[in-house]
Amino acid sequence: MNSPSQNKPALKLSRHSRDFANKVNSLAHTDTRMCFQCQACYNTCPFVGAMDVTPPAILRLVLLGEDKLVLNSTTIWTCVGCHTCSTICPQNVDMGAVMDALRQIALERGIAPAQPEVLIFHNAILDSIKKYGRTHKLEIMLRYKMKNLDLFSDMDVGLKMLAKRKLDMLPSRVKKIEQVRRLFSYSNGKSNG
Ligand code: SF4
Ligand code: SF4
Fold first, then answer.
1. 95 lines ligand 1 (CB under 6 A)
2. Quick one: which of 28, 51, 145, 177 has the most CB atoms within 10 Å?
3. CA-CA distance, 176 to 181, in Å (whole number)?
């Protein structure tokens, strides 16, 4: 005879939920189903205070197929990819990679980032690497500030950094810049090689 718990129907996830979780798992190369909600990642994430949904809750929402909620959260843009959570997880869930995957899906779907300045900064860094093969911090800061229409905040910090020679006025380019640019072509699916 079945016990009462055996008679309870198991939680049935919709096809949409499974598809969304599978896509996240595949992009992140991790298994979100392994999370048993121990909250270790929540307790160690240095940026959790600035997130609207905690990292473990993001995983649960992914499994439940709550894609709109997850993809519109500030959490996926607040995460800096430090992987503190991934290294501490007893179930080997790579939360940092999950956040990457969710940002990628949000961009594919044309969902405006809940924190647009993060994407502006990200693109400024990538543009610099594509141009020089390394980052030119002064140009990154100027591009970021112009796109954000915020030229004058942090001016004091910038001037101090210039005075201490922490910012190079002119960029330097790596010798084999074409190899770096080829990486960008591969990632855009435009490799001719
Ligand atoms: S540390 Fe791992 S198992 Fe624990 S809540 Fe976070 S993702 Fe889940
Ligand atoms: S990778 Fe993201 S979620 Fe994980 S600890 Fe760092 S900021 Fe928090």
1. yes
2. 28
3. 9
Convert the pLDDT of each residue in 131-178 to its tens digit.
Answer: 999 999 889 988 888 888 888 888 888 888 888 888 888 888 999 999
What HEC string does 39-65 produce? CHHHHHCCCHHHCCCCHHHHHHHHHCC
Q: For ligand 1, say whether the CB of 84 is within 6 Å of any of its atoms.
A: no
Distance of CA 68 to the CA centre of its chain: 16
User: Right CATH number for 15-108 from 2.120.10.30, 1.10.1060.10, 2.60.40.10, 3.90.550.10?
Assistant: 1.10.1060.10
Q: What is the pLDDT of residues 97-121, one digit of tens each?
A: 999 999 999 999 999 999 888 999 9
Span from the CA of 169 to the centroid of ligand 2 (angstroms): 33
Instruction: CATH 1.10.1060.10 in the chain: give the residue spans.
Output: 15-108
| Residue among 139, 114, 116 at smallest CA distance from 128 | 139
The alpha carbon of 6 and the centre of ligand 2 are apart by a number of angstroms equal to 37
pLDDT recorded at residue 191: 41
**What's the gap in Å between 48 CA and the centre of ligand 1?**
14
Residue owning the nearest CA to atom 1 of ligand 1: 89
